[in-house]
From TrEMBL:
Enzyme class, spelled out: hydrolase
Lineage per the UniProt record: Bacteria, Pseudomonadati, Pseudomonadota, Gammaproteobacteria, Vibrionales
Cofactors (names): Zn(2+)
Keyword Cell inner membrane recorded: no
One GO molecular-function entry: zinc ion binding
Organism (species): Photobacterium profundum (strain SS9)
GO cellular component annotations of the record: cytoplasm
Family named by the database record: Belongs to the peptidase M18 family.
Protein name: M18 family aminopeptidase
NCBIfam families xref list: PRK02256.1
Domain of life assignment: Bacteria
SUPFAM superfamilies noted in UniProt: Aminopeptidase/glucanase lid domain, Zn-dependent exopeptidases
Keywords from the named record: Aminopeptidase, Hydrolase, Metal-binding, Metalloprotease, Protease, Zinc
InterPro entries reported in the protein's UniProt record: Peptidase_M18, Peptidase_M18_dom2
Amino acid sequence: METLQYTNGWLNLNEERINEINYFCEDYKHFLNKGKTERQCVALCVKQAEEKGFRPISEFKQLNPGDKVYFVNRKKNVALVVVGKQPISDGIRYVVSHIDSPRLDLKPSPLYEKSELALMRTHYYGGIKKYQWASRPLALHGIVATKSGRNVDIVIGEDPQDPVFTIPDLLPHLDKKVQRERTATEVLKGEELQIIVGSIPMEVNDDKIKDKVKHHILTKLFEKYEISEPDFISAELMLVPAGEARDVGIDGGLLGAYGQDDRICAFTSLEAIFDIAVPEQTAVCFLVDKEEIGSSGSTGLESRYLEYFTGELLIRQLGNQYNDQMMRRCLWQSYALSSDVNAGLNPLFESVHDVQNASKLGYGLVLTKYTGHGGKAGSNDADAEYVAVLRRMFDDKEIKWQSGLLGKVDEGGGGTVAKYLAHYGINTIDAGAALISMHSPFELSSKFDIHELYKAYKVFFIDSIKPTEY
């Protein structure tokens, strides 16, 4: 009689496999270092996709098996498609990840001066522990769209020669009344998330200019980028942790970096779709935005962009035979992995986990049947039959996997994009990696899991699941 027993993936690996894992993770580090925002991720993905033979959908009048196509939505979504042997109307394999991560966004009017220091005000994006962002080097990334029509790309703080930015915390000698009596969520309040951007006053002969440090900063920005203070209103500028992804631990088995939720799944699904030829069913790697704030907006999965590009695929294969019911039928017969991370068992805080149902670093892909909070609120709850199909698929290909839940029942919870995929009737389950310190400026993953994710997504794209099986 079979019993449930998961084992650590590092056990019994030969040197060749370990080298393969480490080599793969060097590429992953590069992806994390160069793609710290969703726009940067999309640009990086398109560049790599074109090198692999993908072409924009506008270049295709008719789609045939093996065609490699990509879509870009407002520079924040990208969908990569490899057309399969079966008709697209019979269903699609979607692997969907998000490429936005918690961060600090500059406010539309951010710059001011106080105590002869220039500061900028921010608004945090996504679920963060605010105190984790103080007294650490931060880099500024994003674009400024000027009234004249120029888009100015800005990255300050990543080159070793660049200045960085920081939020000044309060020294322990003076924090007794101001901070120590606050709850953890208010050790640093939202309006206190302000970065120092300058300290040198500019000598000016105009008595009307009182804030000489602020004036100096505006002068510097205009000299280098030709942007002025009103241009911040039409900008997307964000603060992220400065620095590169690093190996963690003497044995180097872990990887630490900002933004692994959820770029760990984005990178591995990209590599998987790059490495397939002509699948049975059409394969789609879809990278989305805005998951950290509820998948809202025109670039989040709550939008209808998935319908938009799926419809384009169907029209280019079916021509005049296409109708809306074919779209609905296609989606209802499709399969998806909502590729998002799970809370890995934290050895310092095991009490918040149901240890028997917690995922662990180094144990492979995590299948999360449901997320949500309270009584599974806001969750997709994967069908038992679909879970069984995936178990068989991964076991047959010797893919290491485990099940996981997001903590104890009433401890908290969270959601993913799964419910937005299931809305269309797509068979969906959450499938990603376990992370420790999720949503922090330095998240931890296992190198073994990273490579195993890639293998699992590749198998999912090419395996011959048939609708009649489920």
